[in-house]
């Protein structure tokens, strides 16, 4: 029986800490403001954006919501980002991804002022992370480090295996685990014997985007398993990249979906907003 890593509870603790910080800042006359831009009305994006607004309201962060139509041109979006860059009362800017196909995400991300890049997606933020200097860190991997630390799971000296090499999860996850003195291996679609590699992991982080792909035979007895995936099943329920029922009996600790990594992503976004004014 694995220990359940409760992302909902831990994210709640972080949000309460941030609420206190924001109240103290308010006493000094400092406000925290996040601008969230959504282009089009993809239902999943609308749910996430709604969750972000709710978290802002709870903590006491002002949120400005920009809901732009699907037909918005790249230049119109860039102009809005530039306006927000120039506004002194806006501390953080988040452009919800994915964007419609006629807009180049990379150009949009590069246009966000690095000091307002609360997603940690700007090349400057990524560069600072890779040389171990202060900057915004991508929220999902930052949240995973918090889950491990606050669950008393040591990273120092451990075999850490990350499955997935995306710019927003896999790569920054590897960087953060290195920073914590883990021994890190990154696997991806060209990895020859995936199972052989994942079975070495003391800490296994799975971000491959394949529903319930990781089964017990990929996991060493007692390993910590972190599931970044999110898929909706035919019955409407959410599940991850890890087959929870298969892996849970062999793992030492495991995150559920929902209630694991997802809520931590939002808590770390809030944390980045607060540190953008500090
Ligand atoms: N610029 C940008 N930044 C992002 O951080 C970003 C994004 N674009 N695009 C989409 C992804 C996805 N994402 C999630 C956040 C919270 C949950 C979350 O709270 N999940 C809940 C369940 C939510 C539900 O019930 O649907 C859970 O796992 O317990 C999930 C996914 C942020 N993203």
Automatic annotation (TrEMBL):
Chain positions recorded as NADP(+) binding sites: 164-166
Residue ranges of every copy of the Tetrahydrofolate dehydrogenase/cyclohydrolase NAD(P)-binding domain listed in the record: 138-277
Pathway: One-carbon metabolism; tetrahydrofolate interconversion
Domain (Tetrahydrofolate dehydrogenase/cyclohydrolase catalytic) ranges: 5-119
PROSITE patterns found in the cross-reference section: THF_DHG_CYH_2 (PS00767)
The EC number(s) this enzyme carries: 1.5.1.5, 3.5.4.9
Reaction it catalyzes: (6R)-5,10-methenyltetrahydrofolate + H2O = (6R)-10-formyltetrahydrofolate + H(+); (6R)-5,10-methylene-5,6,7,8-tetrahydrofolate + NADP(+) = (6R)-5,10-methenyltetrahydrofolate + NADPH
Coiled-coil annotated spans: 8-35
Alphabetical list of InterPro entries matching this protein: Aminoacid_DH-like_N_sf, NAD(P)-bd_dom_sf, THF_DH/CycHdrlase, THF_DH/CycHdrlase_cat_dom, THF_DH/CycHdrlase_CS, THF_DH/CycHdrlase_NAD-bd_dom
Domain of life: Bacteria
Keywords: Amino-acid biosynthesis, Coiled coil, Histidine biosynthesis, Hydrolase, Methionine biosynthesis, Multifunctional enzyme, NADP, One-carbon metabolism, Oxidoreductase, Purine biosynthesis
Function: Catalyzes the oxidation of 5,10-methylenetetrahydrofolate to 5,10-methenyltetrahydrofolate and then the hydrolysis of 5,10-methenyltetrahydrofolate to 10-formyltetrahydrofolate.
Subunit structure: Homodimer.
Full protein name: Bifunctional protein FolD
Gene behind this protein: folD
């Amino acid at each position: 029986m694995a220990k359940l890593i409760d992302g909902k509870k831990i994210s709640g603790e972080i949000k309460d800490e941030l609420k206190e910080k924001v109240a103290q800042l308010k006493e000094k006359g400092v406000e925290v403001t996040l601008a969230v831009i959504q282009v089009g009305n993809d239902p999943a994006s609308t749910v996430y954006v709604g969750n972000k607004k709710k978290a802002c309201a709870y903590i006491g962060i002002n949120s400005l919501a920009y809901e732009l139509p699907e037909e918005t041109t790249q230049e119109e979006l860039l102009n809005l980002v530039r306006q927000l860059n120039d506004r002194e009362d806006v501390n953080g800017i988040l452009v919800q991804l994915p964007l419609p196909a006629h807009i180049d995400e990379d150009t949009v991300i590069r246009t966000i002022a690095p000091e307002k890049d609360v997603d940690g997606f700007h090349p400057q933020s990524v560069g600072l992370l890779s040389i171990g200097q202060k900057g915004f860190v991508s929220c999902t991997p930052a949240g995973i480090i918090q889950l491990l630390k606050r669950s008393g799971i040591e990273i120092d000296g451990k075999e850490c295996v990350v499955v997935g090499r995306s710019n927003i999860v896999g790569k920054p996850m590897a960087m953060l685990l290195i920073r914590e003195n883990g021994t890190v291996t990154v696997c991806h679609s060209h990895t020859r014997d995936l199972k052989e590699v994942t079975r070495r992991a003391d800490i296994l982080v799975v971000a491959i985007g394949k529903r319930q792909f990781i089964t017990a035979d990929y996991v060493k007895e007692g390993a910590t398993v972190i599931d970044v995936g999110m898929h909706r099943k035919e019955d409407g329920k959410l599940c991850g990249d890890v087959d929870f029922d298969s892996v849970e009996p062999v793992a030492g600790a495991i995150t559920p979906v929902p209630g694991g990594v997802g809520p931590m992503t939002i808590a770390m976004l809030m944390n980045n907003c607060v540190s953008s004014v500090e």
